[in-house]
Design goal:
heterodimer, A: alpha/beta, globular, B: 243 residues, alpha+beta, five-stranded antiparallel sheet, 9 strands, 40% helix
């Protein structure tokens, strides 16, 4: 039923990916567009997606294939009969493991190259319960009450972005841009759509960096803008810094645990469980319920620099980290957040 | 609420969560890769057998939660207690090692069979002890009727000896005494200890090598293979003469 509904709006290309009938969708990738096209050519010449990545982009291997990435899915308490959607699925780090656990998955991403790669991966894994839709998340039609599970993994902070994003040319690089809407409004409007697409007892899995990650207070760079302090500063100050250094406002808004809970509540989710993740949500070693004191964490700082010398600043950071996470056992400054929110 | 306690720590794609429940906590293990699914399936079988032998099997506390062609999730009991440091070695852990050997004999119940169930990873690190006694965990290499009686304990004794010897070629008299005491106990329980009668250390190694499939061909990682050749010869010779 659902797929038929989508097929009325989109058409399947030669790789069996659902694409917009008229215009293209958009672009967001770690690889430049030309590089990605070349990668797809190499992929078609390789026997499997794993072989292609191992040979041509070994540094992306864990990002795509590591089983560590799927740990958070257990928080959804899946029964095996769910219809799911993975928003911003990219190369399928969660799409594939989710399909192994559930009835069906719709992977949505605006970058056709990423989906073409994912299609090969799906073939290699012999999975027949995944459909792929090439579409910008902000332009995706509403599919009300269709899904039991929605995944928004490392995506919410990118939703306010506009235009083509080739990450290598964009991350920390100067590129003038103007945005017409407030980033939070765009994020909330996206989450409203996610909420509406879920059925009555549907669950959302949302993973994002914590705005108040302890790292940020020591000048570590924001993983989205590559600028120091932009996540923790008031938004207008972050905007000023970003405008000056990058020529564009700061739009990759992150949130604290409490802010994220409020946003989800306002969007309409009723049961919200938050978890802190160490060292990050992508490859978590520890996931702790936010309401409880931290029982385990991975250290964020090394006291030594690359040359093996102990640095006073790092030592100070380490001491503060120990105090916050080991003594106070406080989740508030954890690096990442996973939210599992149920509609009712 | 779930709490992630291990994420693919042995490169097997298995995630381990602690699930805090109303009346008692539980451990959740899940995997979507071939090796992980195999190990979790064996783990559940191991727990079922072990708890059955103990007379405390409860199908609600030890069961498959979700199973699909390429995914499995199980729930097994959480045991509250302490773990000893495996790196302490045979002398410091001698009391605990003795209790584990006794526990093994009680659970495995010698019955003049050729083959007995195999735990496959009976290390100090997989033992939890509390007021109720010894509890064996991590059953992912469990196989029914696969090993001679006592195999897991011989493996444990020699693993502990290795940590105790800290690179020495020859064990001390105390170390040999602890080994002797435990092996004598095993022999007093088992009427038919033919497999380990001579050269117990090399016999244990020989068994593992001959059955490497039971360890997914990953036997090079097992501590028992870290003994130097001259140590193996010396230990076996000494034990042969003392037993």
């Amino acid at each position: 039923m659902l797929i038929k509904k989508i097929e009325d709006i989109y058409q399947r290309n030669s790789d069996d990916i659902l694409c917009a009938k008229t215009s293209g969708s958009g672009y967001w990738s770690n690889l430049d567009e030309n590089e990605n096209a070349e990668f797809i050519r190499k992929l078609r010449a390789s026997s499997t997606a794993i072989d292609a990545v191992k040979k041509h982009y070994p540094h992306f291997f864990d990002v795509i294939f590591s089983p560590k990435r799927e740990a958070g899915l257990e928080l959804l308490d899946l029964k095996g009969n769910e219809q799911c959607v993975d928003y911003g699925c990219m190369w399928g780090a969660l799409t594939v493991p989710l399909a192994k656990r559930t009835e069906s998955v719709l992977g949505v991403d605006q970058t056709l190259h990423s989906l073409t790669f994912l299609k090969q991966r799906i073939k290699d894994e012999k999975l027949n319960n995944i459909d792929l839709l090439c579409e910008n998340l902000n332009q995706m039609p509403t599919l009300a009450n269709e899904f039991d599970v929605a995944i928004v993994n490392g995506v919410l902070e990118w939703v306010p972005e506009i235009g083509k994003i080739e990450l290598k040319q964009y991350f920390g690089k100067r590129k003038q841009k103007r945005y017409s809407k407030n980033p939070k409004k765009i994020q909330v409007s996206f989450l409203e759509k996610v909420h509406s697409n879920l059925n009555k007892k549907g669950k959302l899995y949302l993973a994002i960096e914590n705005r108040y990650d302890l790292n940020m207070f020591f000048g570590f760079k924001d993983p989205h803008s590559n600028l120091a302090f932009t996540s923790i500063l008031p938004r207008n100050m972050a905007n000023t810094i970003s405008m000056r250094k990058l020529g564009r406002p700061y739009v990759n808004w992150l949130y604290s645990f409490t802010d994220l809970r409020n946003i989800l509540k306002n969007v309409g989710f009723e049961r919200i469980n938050l978890y802190s993740c160490f060292p990050n949500y992508r490859f978590p070693d520890h996931i702790n319920p936010y309401e409880k004191k931290i029982s385990a964490y991975s250290s964020l700082f090394s006291v030594k620099d690359n040359n093996g010398n102990i640095k006073i600043k790092r030592l100070g950071a380490k001491l503060i980290e120990s105090f916050v996470f080991r003594v106070l056992k406080n989740n508030f400054f954890a690096p990442s957040i996973i939210a599992v929110a149920q509609k009712k | 609420m779930l709490q992630l306690i291990q994420n693919c720590s042995h490169d097997n794609g298995v995630v381990i969560f602690l699930s805090e429940e109303k009346y008692s906590n539980a451990i959740i293990k899940a995997s979507s890769n071939i090796v992980g699914i195999m190990q979790i399936t064996q783990e559940l079988k191991g727990w079922e057998w072990y708890l059955g032998q103990k007379g405390s099997f409860n199908s609600d506390k030890c069961r498959v939660v979700c199973k699909r062609e390429k995914y499995i999730k199980i729930k097994i009991p959480y045991i509250n207690g302490k773990k000893a440091k495996y790196s302490n070695g045979l002398i410091k852990n001698s009391n605990l090692v003795g209790k584990i050997v006794e526990h093994y004999c009680r659970i495995w119940k010698e019955s003049k069979k050729d083959k007995y169930p195999l735990h496959g990873d009976l290390s100090i690190d997989n033992i939890i002890y509390n007021n109720e006694g010894i509890h064996i965990i991590d059953w992912e290499y469990f196989t029914f009727d696969a090993a001679p009686f006592g195999f897991d304990t011989y493996n444990l004794l020699f693993e502990q000896l290795l940590f105790s010897m800290k690179g020495r070629i020859k064990p001390t008299i105390r170390e040999i005494d602890v080994l002797k005491r435990n092996i004598e106990f095993l022999r007093s329980v088992s009427s038919d200890d033919h497999y380990f009668k001579r050269d117990p250390l090399s016999s244990t190694q020989k068994f593992i090598k001959a059955n490497s499939k039971l360890w997914n061909n990953q036997i090079k990682r097992l501590p028992i293979f870290f003994f130097k050749k001259e140590s193996v010869e010396h230990i076996d010779k000494t034990l042969n003469s003392k037993l």
